[in-house]
Amino acid sequence: MEDRAADTERRRLLALVGTGLATGLAGCSGGGDGGDGGDGGGDTATATATATATETATSGGEDTVPSEYETATAIGGAQRNPDSLSSKSAVNYQSEPKDGQKCSNCQFYIEDKNGDGMGACTLVEGNIDPEGYCVSYAEYEG
Fold this sequence. Notes:
Blueprint: H1 2-27, H2 44-59, E1 109-110, E2 120-121
Antiparallel strand pairs: 1-2
Organism: Haloplanus rallus
Keywords: 4Fe-4S, Electron transport, Iron, Iron-sulfur, Metal-binding, Transport
Pfam family, one: HIPIP
């Protein structure tokens, strides 16, 4: 049992560290006056096209959360920040539970707010299936 708890904590730590690193790198990727005399955008068009292609391939289409989820609070109390989310592929998101662990039992899950059966997450972008799972799973004990 201790090994399983240690594995869960290790996965959570790795997911949080990875999210922090990705957020830090994203902040360094431009968007302002880069001092190069250009528009500061760099490869924005390429990055946007790549992100769109990745999102479409991962989610099967449009996967933008409705406005009521953008800064909503998860069942564990964390507030969602749309500027610091990981992609579904980065957290190995899958739409089926793993070993009884599913998003609806995770402290980062934001429950359905509009009746479509989907929720959101404070760590992961896009719509989240309550039966889904990712490596950032942390059991809600409330």
